[in-house]
Each structure stands twice: as structure tokens, then as C-alpha cells.
Amino acid sequence: MATRSRRAEGARRRAQAESVVVPFPRRGGELRVDLARMLPSGSSLLIAFALVVGAIGAYVVARNTGLFGVRRVAVEGAPASVSRQVERTLGDELGKSLLSVDMSRVQAELEALPWVAGVHVDRAFPHTLRIMVIPERPVAVARQGANSYLVSGAGRVIASVDRGVRPALARVWVRRDVKLVPGQLVTGDPLAAVTAVAPLAGSRFPARVTSVTVGEQSITLRLQSGLELRLGDPTGLELKLAVAAAVLPRVRAGSTYLDVSVPERPVAGMDSAPYTNPKAQVESQSQLSMNP
User: CA 251 to CA 226: how far, in whole Å?
Assistant: First the structure.
């Protein structure tokens, strides 16, 4: 019985020990934050307000006075003739504060110039407006009667030029009812013709292209030798021209055409009649003057 009592007493003590709750000390006083110390003082607020007002005032003065007045337009990346056009276009900006120059408007005005393909405008304090120009690159000469126009790879009419200018560029003969205005884009068949010869500009193509004929689904280049280079539809032009450049030196004398419309199987031969399309909007050189 004594043993049983001792066991019961031990079990009771263990149960009491397991159920004891140990209270943690309350430290609420230490965790309280003194919000008053975190708030800025009146003098700090006054100083901050004065700094903001001063900065705004300095900006207004700089914007509306000659402190940062534009004294020079620095044009980079363009030939002298294009640089002069840019400078003339921005003549009204001279004297204005750099801070008051509308950069978006300036960029739009410069991109409208026929010779400008792209432009980046930047302020170079204290007195310079810096213009980085990407000029248009002529790839063909559009001929329309006695008139000639330089055209870029994107089909943009760059400028009216004298006959015979840029003899290395292909001539694209355009019907008289097509409007060619410097700064605007050509469309339709003239654009297809320009796109066809664009890869040749500045390349080492082994023959000079004198004219381009565009049909409904065909593009033909006439070479200075009289040979017709048939490209077929306007897909894969760079590959077709690369194949033609490799094959042309091996074409037999007397051949009248080289067909690379299927670049894997180039074919050269003779035709009794030239390959033309009466519906073409771009006329072949044989239909007009033979002068460049």
C-alpha cells in the first residue's frame, strides 16, 4: 500500500510540473516608441520647403533666361550638305534656353528632312544642342522622263538630281503618273524594284545594273552587258543575288538571260524575245532613253 501511495504521489507531482505555465516578463514600457521624436521639427520643415522653392525658382530662371541659351547646333554623323540642312531647320532654336527646347518636336522636324533616316537630339549644357544624324543611303536612281531622283533602300525619295549622277546605282524607270516627291515614299512596283537592287548598293556585284522591270510576280534586272537577270518573285532576293554573283562570270557569251528564280537551279540561255511584262508599273530601259 505504501508503495502504491508513493507511486500515486509521484504521478501527481509530474502532472503538476508539466502543467506549470512560466510567465514572461512584460516589457511594454521598453517597446513603446516615442513618436514625437520621429516627427521633423518645425525648423527642418521650413528648411526643406525653402530648398524646394529655391530649386523651382532656379529652374524657372534657367528656363526663361539666357543662362542656358542655345548658342550652337552641333551636328554629328552627317555629310556637310545634310548638316547645313539640319542647322537651317533649327535656326529658330538659337537663343532659346536648352530647357525650353521641345525635343520631341525637334526630332520630328528633323526626321521629316528627306536626307535624314533617323536622329537623336540631346542637350549639351551650357549652350549646345547636339544632333546625331543617321543619313539616308541612296540605293537607286528613279528615272521619270528627263527627271532623276535618288531613292533610299526604304523607298524614300531623297532628292532630285541631274542625269548621270551616281552612275553605279541602278536606274528604276517609273511611269509618268507616279508622283515622286522628296521626303515621301514610293509604293507598289517602284518600291519592289528599289527593294530588289538595294542589296547591290556598295557591294561587289560583278556587273552593273542599268534598269529594273517589275511584273506581277517577277523582277528582272537588265545588266549593262544586255543580259537579263531574272529574279522571279520578290522572296529571297539576297540569296538570289548572291547566286547570280557567283554564276555570272561563268555565263556563256551570247546568252541573253540568267534565271535565278530558283536559286538552287540557276539557268542561263538565249531567248528570241526579251522578257517583259506590259502590266509592269516600272518600265524597262529599252522602252525609254538609253542615257543614264
Answer: 13
Neighbour-count burial of 57, counting CB atoms closer than 10 A to its CB (0-12 exposed, 13-18 middle, 19+ buried): exposed
Residues present in the chain in total: 292
- Note every long-range contact of 248-254, with CB atoms under 8 Å and residues 24 or more positions apart, other chains counting: 248/206, 248/207, 249/206, 251/227
Q: How is residue 149 written as a grid cell?
A: 531622283
Q: Using the 3D structure, point to which of 100, 119, 135 is the last residue of a domain.
A: 135
Within a 13 Å sphere around the CA of 207, how many CA atoms are in the beta-carbon half?
23
Q: pLDDT digit string (tens) for 180-206?
A: 999 999 999 999 999 999 999 988 999
Cell matching residue 233: 518573285
Distances in Å between the Cα of 182 and the Cα atoms of 95, 109, 150, 152, 166 are 30, 15, 9, 11, 17
Neighbour tally for 75: CB within 10 Å: 21
> The domain spanning residue 199 has which CATH number?
3.40.50
Task: Give 47-85 pLDDT, tens digit per residue.
Answer: 766 667 555 554 454 455 567 899 999 999 999 999 999
Look at residues 119, 135, 151 and tell me which one is the last residue of a structural domain: 135
